[in-house]
Design goal:
Chain lengths: 358, 309
């Protein structure tokens, strides 16, 4: 990804100032435009998600029966609903004029509705609302719904990743440093877990332990985190093994440092690069997994919603109201897209093999 | 080599044993039984049901009985579909999933490798950028978004393809196109990226320079020297790809209403159909474990740098 630039780079340049790993990585990340833009987008999403309760969005639970299934528009809702109804009346009139008598009661009802709506349009303050992403089948604002869905999805992604990293780093570090039978035991265990069809296990866990009508986010966290620390444990173990016989560890040990101190103060900081890369790359995959479960109806349950459950709801009504599918789908896609670019960018920036090379 | 194969084969046994044990106890310790929903069943009937399915015995006895049954390839009766056994249910749905999965994997492999080679050879040209942009989309967009969006565009708006159904229906093979493409998309993307990266690497290697230096035609250099080394990572990705396609088919089958094992699995998990869940998990794991084994062996044959001692 890094661009060609021969000015700053000269491997024989003796006068180059010593650069820390982080300064070096940041320098390279800054050159990666896609990663930077993506970082801004991700930051924007995070900001909106965190600040959603104090921002002037509509409430995602408020239903308004006059405004069901409105398409995305910048017009106020009352106007839009009237337009829609007029459209319907026109269609019905032409059908009745064609001699379809069975539709007559429908036409009368629609005309009455329209008259009532027109009379009321000034009185109801909700008619002034603007739904830029449309509304759902209960007249709830799609924008607010997708933002609150994003909050859940991002929270699951974040907590899942943190748990996985914490467990994986600790197990991987001890396994690699202590070695011997402990290492053998832990790695055999990891091997066996790798053989398991892991999403299926999570699905079983979700299906078994969630209770109807009760929020099951907690089980979702456990289910996803339980099986996701394997990769990071392996990676960290490899790093630790390659470092544990180096001189600085020898020095620390000869000065009487304890095992825990050597691992946490001397070895892990050296593995921080891979840990960060893993974290940024697994966040989108957690969000995908959570949404995957929610899509199958086994993730978060109503009234909470996540990107996955919103897409699943939208897929049911996409024939008539495609925006209900497209709004969460596009929003989620952009986020995952950017997360992937950030992860790739971080990997390129932090990878020691690409140090001082562009 | 044969020693390695045998050792590797033997190591599959503990893995399968753990899987069977884990799924047995996981399912048994879960709250709520298979008979505890919808309408209330009288106590006597419940006891008879428990007796019929041997669920009144101590857990140890049940476990040993189950292990024996599994070894004979008998997964027992389904708890929910009273008239059929787990073996029957799996036999009905499994071939459909295998068919869909293999078609998708073939599409992903063929297209992925092709695109990977082309963009590696056209590195940093617009063809490369275009292909890699599509690949990033494929990696970051989840299946359950691709599926419905495909349905919306090609089924509902353009009317090119039927939005759901299976090849046994009136529309025949046309119903296969959308689900197979949906399922193949992420793996196509991944394989394209993987093969591009490794071919770019190989193109810079010494042995390719030597091949060019001794005056081989570019066609021979690419076909004989570059591809052989460049496609090795794709072979080792086959294992994860296979497991991904298995999980992916859960979504694709439910989006496109395909009568495959993925849909049965989701249903059985919701129904708490103990024996069915366990049977499916065992089948799935068996495939995964076997695929990983085969990939390892094939890799050993292809890569001259690996020797099994």
């Amino acid at each position: 990804m890094a661009k060609k630039n021969d000015k700053a780079v000269n491997e024989f340049n003796q006068q180059m100032k010593p650069v820390s790993l982080w300064a070096d990585a940041w320098k390279r990340l800054r050159k990666n435009k896609m990663a930077l833009i993506s970082l801004w987008v991700v930051g924007f999403y995070a900001l909106i998600a965190i600040a959603a309760p104090i921002l002037p969005f509509y409430d995602y639970r408020t239903q308004s029966m006059n405004h069901i299934n409105l398409p995305p528009s910048l017009k106020p809702a009352g106007r839009l609903a009237i337009d829609q109804l007029e459209e319907q009346v026109k269609l019905l009139r032409s059908r009745v004029a064609d001699g379809v008598d069975s539709l007559k009661p429908n036409l009368e009802r629609a005309e009455a509705d329209l008259a009532a709506m027109k009379a009321n349009v000034g009185n109801d303050p909700t008619d002034k609302k603007v739904y830029i992403l449309g509304t759902d089948y209960l007249g709830r604002d799609m924008l607010a719904k997708t933002i609150y869905g994003a909050r859940i999805s991002m929270m699951v992604g974040l907590i899942g990743t943190l748990t996985a990293v914490l467990v994986g780093v600790i197990i991987g570090a001890f396994s690699g440093y202590v070695g011997g039978w402990l290492d053998n035991l832990l790695m055999r265990f990891v091997d066996i877990m790798y053989g398991l069809p892991y999403m299926l296990i999570v699905i079983i866990l979700m299906a078994m332990f969630r209770k109807e009508g009760q929020s099951s986010i907690f089980i979702l966290f456990i289910g996803i985190a339980l099986v996701s620390w394997l990769t990071i444990a392996r990676v960290v173990r490899g790093q630790i093994i390659s470092l544990k016989n180096s001189e600085f560890v020898e020095a620390a040990r000869s000065m009487g440092a304890s095992t825990g101190r050597i691992i946490f103060r001397h070895l892990l900081p050296n593995a921080l690069g891979v840990i960060i890369i893993f974290t940024s790359l697994s966040l989108p995959s957690f969000i995908m997994n959570e949404s995957f479960l929610s899509f199958l109806g086994m993730g978060v349950s109503a009234p909470l919603s996540s990107w996955g459950s919103l897409v699943s709801e939208g897929a049911n009504t996409m024939e008539l109201y495609p925006w209900q599918l497209l709004a969460p789908a596009i929003e989620m896609t952009i986020f995952l897209f950017c997360m992937n670019f950030v992860g790739d960018g971080l990997r390129d920036a932090l990878d020691p093999q690409s140090k001082n090379r562009t | 080599m044969s020693k390695y194969i045998i050792r590797r084969l033997l190591s599959l046994i503990p893995t399968m044993f753990v899987i069977v044990t884990l799924s047995f106890f996981l399912v048994r310790f879960a709250p709520g039984g298979p008979f505890s929903s919808e309408k209330k069943v009288p106590e006597q009937v419940l006891q008879n049901l428990m007796k019929k399915y041997h669920m009144d015995e101590p857990l140890g006895t049940q476990y040993v009985r189950y292990l024996g049954d599994v070894l004979r390839g008998d997964f027992g009766p389904s708890f929910r579909y009273r008239d059929s056994t787990v073996n029957e249910l799996i036999a009905q749905s499994f071939p459909n999933s295998i068919f869909l999965g293999s078609v998708s994997l073939c599409i992903a492999l063929l297209l992925g490798i092709l695109v990977g080679i082309l963009s590696a050879l056209k590195q940093n040209h617009w063809q490369d950028y275009a292909a890699m942009s599509i690949a990033v989309v494929g990696i970051s967009v989840p299946l359950f978004v691709i599926g419905p969006v495909f349905q919306l565009v090609f089924g509902l708006k353009l009317h090119w393809l039927p939005i759901s159904g299976w090849i046994t229906s009136r529309d025949g093979l046309k119903t296969l196109i959308m689900p197979a493409l949906t399922l193949a998309f992420p793996y196509f993307a991944y394989i394209a990226r993987l093969s591009r990266a490794s071919i770019v690497e190989v193109l810079r290697s010494d042995y390719v320079r030597t091949a060019r230096a001794k005056g081989l035609a570019e066609r021979v250099v690419i076909g004989k020297h570059v591809l052989k080394g460049g496609l090795l990572p794709v072979v080792s990705y086959l294992g994860p790809a296979f497991s991904g396609i298995i999980t992916g088919s859960l979504v694709v089958e439910s989006v496109f209403a395909i009568p495959g094992i993925g849909r049965v699995f989701v249903q059985s998990a919701i129904n708490r159909d103990y024996t069915l869940i366990m049977g499916e998990v065992i089948i799935y794991s068996l495939i995964l474990v076997t695929m990983n084994f085969v990939v390892d062996i094939v890799y050993g044959f292809l890569d001259p740098r690996i020797s099994y001692k």
